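Quick log. Single chain, no ligands specified.
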Amino acid sequence: MKYTFLILSLLLIPSFAGIAYGHTVDAVGEYRVEIGWMNEPVVSGETNALELYVNPLIPCPDISIPLECANSQEFQNGIEGLRKLLKIQFVYDKTQTITLPLVDDHDIPGKYYAFITPTVSGYFQANLIGKILDTPVNLSMHPPPIAERSYIEFPELSDLALTEVIDDNAKLVERINSLENTVKNLENSNNQMQNEIDVNDIWATGIGIIALIIAIIALVKIRKN
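-> predicted structure:
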């Protein structure tokens, strides 16, 4: 039982490592190209960079498929001077694209970077466009997928600024509602006071009319006498 578990572990571990940390290799004419992420595992919301390696493809007499030949080799004798000749088109969901310029690695000839901050997780496509010296290039490659940022966050989301903004907005809404209620109360009090003033005016007018009538009657009686 123990040996069975050990064998399964040895089989599974390389598979997971390949998914998380593998680079993609392909061949273009007489050249070998390799692409991957600078920082792995790559997560959404963090600035990272695609690494591009370009070097001559050594002929493989026993391997007829160029892709398999390229995969059987390692990066060496990198080709310089491709920064202005090549670009990487980053594609998400087949509908959103961005073209990324290349930056030289000053320590490793033939190694280049394309910096980007992926905002969502998932699988992306990287199209290598341009030319390697005199060889035209239009190659689609698939770097390892991008993981959700929460994958490495502990114990809670690190975006405290966003949380503070949400809290401030909630407090602002409460204050606005409180002000609206205060204004409504003032309006109701004003209407009530206006109604009371109107009633008092009516009573005062009525009393004045009655007093005027009494005065007229009294004046008429005095004249008769």
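Residues 3 and 192 are 89 Å apart (CA to CA).
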